[in-house]
Design brief:
Elements (H helix, E strand, L loop, with lengths): L19 E5 L5 H13 L15 E5 L10 H4 L1 E5 L6 E5 H7 L1 H12 L4 H7 L2 E3 L13 E2 L2
Parallel strand pairs: 1-2, 1-6, 2-5
Antiparallel strand pairs: 3-4
Helix pairs in contact: 1-4, 3-4
Length: 146
């Protein structure tokens, strides 16, 4: 027998509670760290999670320059881009990317773990990455992401 009064609950935009978390990337592995960050940005660990809404939290990553990459990925992992013009193909190794812009390696790893939708762009704006130990988000009183 089916209960006629059963309703599916969905969160309202005003009900979504956004927390701030801080992660120290020093000594952490890139992929494992990116998984934790992506889960927090999506809001998957919250009981209010809905896949059609942005229910995630803000994540601050510090010490991005002191990230650890295992194996030979610093040499073998390649990032590709194309300008759209003839001969506009660019290729860069992970080691070169970390040296040039350490925050970009984490950003790309997390972005690859989010859905390929417009919603993911909104979720990526909640990710703040800093190469050093300082961040300007002290007023938000971020808690460590565990």
């Amino acid at each position: 027998e089916v209960d006629v009064n059963m309703k599916t609950w969905t969160p309202r935009a005003a009900e979504i509670e956004r927390n701030w978390y801080v992660v120290d990337a020093e000594g952490q592995t890139l992929g494992r760290l990116a998984t934790k960050i992506a889960t927090a940005l999506l809001g998957k660990s919250k009981p209010t999670y809905a896949d059609h809404m942005d229910t995630g939290d803000f994540v601050i990553v510090v010490n991005a320059a002191k990230l650890v990459v295992t194996g030979d990925r610093l040499l073998s992992k390649r990032y590709h881009s194309h300008s759209g013009h003839p001969g506009g193909h660019r290729e860069e190794g992970l080691g070169d990317l970390i040296q040039r812009k350490p925050t970009e390696a984490i950003r790309r790893a997390v972005k690859g773990m989010l859905p390929k939708t417009k919603l993911a762009n909104a979720q990526m704006t909640k990710l703040k990455i800093y190469a050093g130990a300082d961040h300007p988000h002290a007023p938000q009183q971020p808690k460590p992401l565990g």
